[in-house]
Design brief:
By secondary structure, the chain is an alpha+beta fold. The protein is built from eleven helices and six strands. α1 runs parallel beside α5 and α5 runs antiparallel to α6.
Length: 287
């Protein structure tokens, strides 16, 4: 076997071992976190169909909506956008309930101190964020990063059955599972670019992956600073009909520093950012 062939085999074995580790660790982390969320909510009101943003077609902003949102500033906003916004860029891959993954993207793996796997290409920015968070007094923990499509399918089924065993109706169990756990081919975690972060202080007081984490000082630091390292708060409040997911103050996605800075400046979701880029290209081409 050539040196190059041996390197490929070694990388394949490494990835297989890491994937197995993630299935074990990811299931433990996610199960306990979502069970904590269920305990905190206790009673779940039944939602009407039109109040379930994760169902049906996601909203897409057209020219009229963009004009209305930015008003007379739209031309300035378009001019300030990064020059190159390619939806095929590995950092900008869109994954949601309508943009499904055909397969898990290929990437070289790195690991967090907790053993969570992620795309090695963002390692420098991730380590810088963690170091600066510690310097600011916040000990962030990676609850989850990469999850395979297979493990995500298991997570959904496991959590659905957990809700049923807690006495939820099938409709409530389905709604709660659907609101917080993506379908297996609609999860950003399969890209190696998504992270669920909580602070150690939040964990020590019994906190989990629930929206009250937004009040934790570490969550506020992340919201104000993550973009400086290329990360965006992925599921914003009041954007559920666009992203397809409820507000998640713990879920961050890597897009690169230049893109993150613009997204943060204008308070956009990734869907809105890519739609704005398409609109700019249409304006430039005159179509």
């Amino acid at each position: 076997m050539t040196g190059e062939g041996f390197k490929r085999v070694r990388q394949m074995v490494y990835m297989i071992l890491l994937a197995g580790m993630v299935v074990v660790l990811g299931l433990v982390d996610q199960s306990s976190a979502f069970e904590s969320h269920a305990k905190l909510t206790n009673q779940v009101p039944a939602l009407k169909a039109n109040e379930r943003p994760s169902q049906g077609k996601l909203q897409v902003a057209g020219a009229d909506q963009l004009e209305a949102r930015f008003g007379g500033q739209l031309d300035q906003v378009l001019a300030e956008m990064p020059d190159s916004i390619d939806p095929k860029d590995w950092r900008l891959i869109l994954v949601n309930r309508q943009a499904l993954l055909d397969k898990e993207p290929d990437f070289e793996a790195a690991q967090t101190p907790e053993g969570q796997v992620y795309d090695q290409r963002l390692q420098g920015d991730l380590e810088a964020l963690m170091a600066d968070a510690r310097a600011a007094g916040y000990d962030l923990r990676t609850i989850s990063a990469f999850r395979s499509i297979e493990s995500q399918a298991y997570n959904r089924q496991h959590q659905y059955e957990t809700y049923l065993n807690q006495g939820k109706s099938k409709e409530e169990a389905e709604r709660m599972t659907d609101a917080y756990i993506a379908p297996e081919r609609a999860t950003e975690h399969a890209t190696g670019l998504a992270f669920d972060w909580l602070s150690q202080a939040w964990l020590d007081q019994g906190g989990g992956l629930d929206d009250s984490f937004v009040e934790d000082p570490a969550a506020q630091w992340l919201a104000d600073n993550a973009h400086k390292y290329g990360f965006i708060l992925r599921y914003l409040k009041d954007r559920e009909a666009i992203t397809g997911y409820e507000f998640e103050p713990w879920h961050y996605r890597y897009v690169g520093r230049e893109h993150a800075a613009f997204i943060q400046r204008y308070g956009l979701s990734l869907e809105e950012y890519l739609q704005l880029a398409r609109y700019r290209d249409q304006v430039k081409s005159g179509s």
